[in-house]
Design a protein that fits this description.
heterodimer; A: alpha/beta; Rossmann fold; three-stranded antiparallel sheet; 34% helix; B: 222 residues; mainly alpha; 0% strand; globular; binds adenosine-5'-diphosphate; binds magnesium ion
């Protein structure tokens, strides 16, 4: 059997007295696209932080490709897209991408930088400071930055929240391409229909636990909504 | 070293573009020099006594600007988290940040020193070159500690207060020795204790740098 891209065993996480995650078990195969659904405060972001190694679980263990998330070769395979931009406003798009391609030791970096700039349609603005960009442009650059080193595992934390339509369309296309290339993708979202469109599999986090783990193909998003995000438990847009 | 060099290049590029740190350092230091030169009517002898201390007050407070600015840049768009995600040793990231802050501070010191000499009408001689290891030693002590403590403080709300609270007690021996050494050179009285004291500064630099280098991985995590 192949080594799973991600293997989580009995993970719990507390912040002092606040419970964030309880008894999480999850195995994701290479090439799978998994959507993580759940209300605000369910623990989605915490789970992604533990997977990326920036946060340590209080209990349990996490392995990426058979080894610790903090191993350097794992970090080189990983990309995170969240509400944080990971960009320097006072550098141009080009300078930001060149900086990160050096950090990630991207082979043929000049070619690769050009390619991602083309993917996000920012080539014509590549020599302008990020501080002069519109929000949508900055968001596109954030996506390009994350994909620069061809990550094998992508973690996206509500990547569509706050994006404009143009950026949403672009991100969906890029994610489809990533999936065709066999990348493993985990994505948290409120948007059940986009989740259905993109992913093979979904899990639902509720009250810090995984309450459902199923395949998207056999699932009707409206049914999930009624079952897990019904109107009586308001506060979530789905 | 690839990542450390990339960080230094990025930081220096941004500094030369905005000149934010250097400008703040200049304004602050000139203010100190002007105030102490024109406000207090003291004899030349007394002035010679306090000039080395003034010089280091200017350096050290300017260094605080440099440190705060350098880490504000990393905080602004979650870049500190991006650093925690990088496939490189925390030590390399530390070296990158340490070098960029140190270089900016040293550049500033080289620029402000002539102004200082003119303000206080000090005599230059061949001996003055002995200041170079003193300035290097004191500055590196300050920045090696300041870099790691800034990374600790940047996670907290009262970043600048915490940085001061952590940094001053630890760095003050180095600064006090550097003032003494600077006084010896500027006063033209290099005594037998000069080299042992300088050695002590360098020893502290090595200790602070090595410890920070090893510990930086932990600091980057939550
Ligand atoms: N750094 C933190 N300190 C304290 N509590 C936290 C921290 N991060 C998350 N939490 C808490 O953990 C729970 C899960 O949060 P989170 O993972 O952000 O949920 P989600 O991303 O699903 O909205 C929440 O109750 C949240 O308040
Ligand atoms: Mg969240």
């Amino acid at each position: 059997m192949a080594i799973p891209a991600l293997q989580i065993k009995d993970v719990s996480k507390d912040f002092g007295r606040i419970i964030a995650l309880r008894g999480i078990n999850l195995s994701v195969d290479p090439g799978e696209f998994v959507s993580i659904l759940g209300r605000n405060g369910a623990g989605k972001t915490t789970l992604l932080n533990i997977i990326s190694g920036v946060s340590q679980p209080s209990e349990g263990s996490v392995e990426l490709f058979g080894s610790d998330p903090s191993d350097r070769q794992n970090k080189a395979k990983l990309a995170v897209i969240s509400h944080e931009m990971f960009l320097y406003d006072n550098l141009t798009a080009m300078e930001n991408l060149e900086y990160y391609s050096r950090i990630y030791n991207v082979p043929d970096s000049a070619v690769r930088v050009e390619q991602v700039l083309r993917d996000i349609e920012l080539t014509h603005r590549r020599f302008d400071l990020v501080s002069t960009y519109s929000r949508g442009m900055t968001q596109r650059l954030t996506i390009a930055r994350a994909l620069l080193h061809e990550p094998a595992l992508l973690l996206l934390d509500e990547p569509f929240t706050g994006l404009d339509q143009h950026a949403i369309g672009m991100l969906i296309n890029l994610l489809r391409k990533q999936r065709e290339k066999g990348r493993t993708i985990l994505l948290t979202t409120h948007d059940l229909h986009t989740a259905k469109e993109l992913s093979d599999r979904f899990i639902i986090l509720e009250k810090h636990r995984i309450v459902k783990d199923g395949m998207m193909a056999d699932t009707d998003p409206d049914k999930i909504r009624n079952e897990f995000f019904s109107a009586s438990t308001a506060g979530v847009e789905v | 070293m690839r990542a450390a060099i990339a960080i230094v290049k990025k930081d220096l590029r941004m500094e030369f573009r905005s000149k934010e740190s250097i400008l703040a350092m200049w304004i602050f230091s000139l203010l100190i020099f002007v105030i102490f030169n024109f406000t207090f009517e003291v004899s030349r002898l007394v002035m010679l006594e306090i000039a080395p201390g003034l010089l280091w007050v200017a350096f050290v407070f300017s260094g605080m600007f440099g440190l705060n600015h350098s880490f504000a840049l990393e905080k602004e768009n979650g870049n500190l988290r991006a650093m925690a995600l990088m496939p490189v040793d925390g030590g390399q990231i530390y070296v990158g940040k340490f070098l960029s802050v140190t270089l900016i501070m040293l550049m500033f010191e080289a620029l402000i020193f002539p102004v200082f000499i003119i303000f206080y009408d000090l005599q230059l001689s061949l001996q003055t070159f002995k200041l170079i290891p003193v300035l290097l030693g004191g500055t590196i002590g300050f920045t090696s500690l300041g870099t790691i403590l800034s990374a600790v403080a940047v996670h907290t709300r009262n970043q600048q207060i915490l940085l001061s609270l952590l940094l001053w007690p630890l760095v003050s021996p180095i600064i006090i020795w550097s003032v003494t050494l600077t006084g010896m050179v500027l006063g033209g009285e290099i005594t037998a204790s000069f080299y042992p004291l300088l050695t002590r500064v360098v020893a502290f630099d090595v200790i602070f740098f090595t410890l920070s280098y090893m510990l930086f991985d932990f600091i980057l995590e939550d």
